[in-house]
Amino acid sequence: MGFKQKLQKRLQNDLTTEELNLLPRGFQTLDKIMILKLHPNLLEKKYIIAESCLKEISSIKSIYLNQGKIEGQFREPKSIQYLVGIKNPLVEHKEHGILYRFNIEKIMFSKGNLFERKYLASLVKKGETIVDMFAGIGYFSLPIGKYSEAKIIYSIELNILSYNFLVQNIEINNLKEKIIPIYGDCKEIVIKLRNQGIQADRVIMGVFPAPKEYIKEALSLCKETGTYIHYEGVIDKNNDLELYNEFSEIAENSGYNSRLENKRYIKSYGPGLFHIVYDIFVN
Ligand SMILES: C[S@@+](CC[C@H](N)C(=O)[O-])C[C@H]1O[C@@H](n2cnc3c(N)ncnc32)[C@H](O)[C@@H]1O
User: What is the CATH number for 165?
Assistant: First the structure.
């Protein structure tokens, strides 16, 4: 029996038939917290539903409701609400053998990006220098540090709260030798790195909306022999090269050649819209 059917059984005396049909099929788990998304027609019954969820899965210690979007430059979750169980939004979530410590009320962690978090690390070759321009709590830097033979990873983050978790995550995953956390705006930090003679084999530009305003800085890190840039954004599936074309125009105008090596749809982002990642080779 699936999660929805089990909930329906538990709640058959508390919800109408219509409400029972609207119950969620699944949920996101972060550490011992269940993040629930509910149909608007179920919000009045959210506490009773949450109590049933808590009883249903013994490893779960608390239930939070996710009603909002992830917004703003810092990509903050806008509406995570505590419902029942132990009230503590600080998690140590384990994924692919890596611990991510963060506050679920303040910092995003998208389950749709699970594959990409591990996949990117598999592309990294021995001895690479990597610059993660929008590092967050280490979404990409930590798996690369753990699973690749990269030489060094510079992880830049502007939100002080995320930066502080990034520092802790580097420590609790024993990656201090490989990852250098840097607090600040990557627009300025990248130029400082470049002035110190640092060039990258790989640059990660993982933020929404597509960080067009930061392409020139990313290009400044490129090696003559070539650098991979992973460029993210949201596209209309009927025009899924739009953001790459913007990128390549800026690259060309700045004197670089760019070649699209691969593109991946990461997750759906609304009707007809997708979160995409382009792997671009620049020299
Ligand atoms: C949330 S991550 C996105 C991670 C990944 N794409 C994912 O979805 O799992 C983007 C991070 O970039 C940071 N950020 C935004 N603007 C920045 C800037 N100018 N310099 C450095 N970090 C920045 C945000 O604070 C945020 O932590």
Answer: 3.40.50.150
Ligand 1: distance of its center to the CA of 60 in Å? Answer: 29
pLDDT, tens digit, 9 for 90 and up, residues 85-98: 999 999 999 999 99
Task: Check pocket membership of 75 for ligand 1, CB cut-off 6 A.
Answer: yes
Q: Is residue 106 part of a domain?
A: no
Tokens representing 232 are 């993210």
Q: What is the pLDDT of residue 266?
A: 92
Whether residues 264 and 153 fall in one domain: yes
> Residue 238: how many CB atoms within 10 A of its CB?
7
Do 269 and 177 reside in the same domain of the chain? yes
Structure-block tokens of residue 220: 């400044």
Of 56, 88, 120, the last residue of a domain is 88
Q: Is 49 exposed, middle or buried (0-12, 13-18, 19+ CB in 10 A)?
A: buried
DSSP 158: -
How far is ligand 1, taken at its centre, from the CA of residue 74, in Å?
Answer: 6
β-pair partners for 35: 28, 64
Q: Is any atom of ligand 1 closer than 6 Å to the C-beta of 277?
A: no
CB 139 less than 6 A from any atom of ligand 1:
yes
pLDDT band with cut points at 50, 70 and 90 for residue 162:
very high
Domain boundary among 41, 73, 88: 88
Same-domain check for residues 138 and 189: yes
93 domain residue, yes or no: no
pLDDT digits (tens, 9 = 90+) for 193-251: 999 999 999 999 999 899 999 999 999 999 999 999 999 999 998 999 999 999 999 99
Q: Domain limits at 15? A: 3-88
